[in-house]
Amino acid sequence: MIFTVGDKVRLLNEVGEGIIVEIISPSQIMVETDMGMELPFSEDDLLKLNEDNTVTYKKREAVIESKSLKQSKKKFTSSIPYNSDVRKNHAPFEIDLHIEELVEEPKKLTPGEMLETQIRHFRDCINEAIAFKISKLVVIHGVGEGILRQNIRTILRDNYPNIEYMDANTRKYGFGATEITIRNLHK
Prior knowledge:
Elements: E1 8-11, E2 17-25, E3 28-33, E4 38-41, E5 46-49, E6 55-56, H1 69-77, H2 85-88, E7 93-96, H3 99-102, H4 111-131, E8 136-140, H5 147-159, E9 163-167, H6 170-173, E10 177-182
Parallel strand pairs: 7-8
Antiparallel strand pairs: 1-2, 1-5, 2-3, 3-4, 5-6, 8-10, 9-10
Helix pairs in contact: 1-4, 4-5
């Protein structure tokens, strides 16, 4: 990705955003963070923000072998039969967004590509849950730096007004999961 001085960027390995103040090399880009500190980052640690605060993801020419989304969706939807015990007991379905569950070779991905893959899978699963009238889900995003969790909650808040979310059961999931309740599915 080509960055220029003055570009607004989101930090991948830390929570926050900033503005590029100097480009020394692709491996060292000085960013003034929203906390007012100038810090060096690699281009792989930054996502360029557009004027409307959407993200431009870095695309590599190398073809990355993804686990079939159909395989992931099949795994997700195969437990959805109407009469299943899970459905009757209102137990939540789980969506695991750990990158190892979504792609064959996660080490070939940049942090931006990992995040893009996880978010795309999350959106697909939420839309399927709505289509299948599944009212409770748990999204397992892991703890990490909180970037994926923050993105998931922003997507839910901005795009799904009929969805409520909160931290999932910490005894079962630790602090790395969000419980989602979809309202008004049976109208």
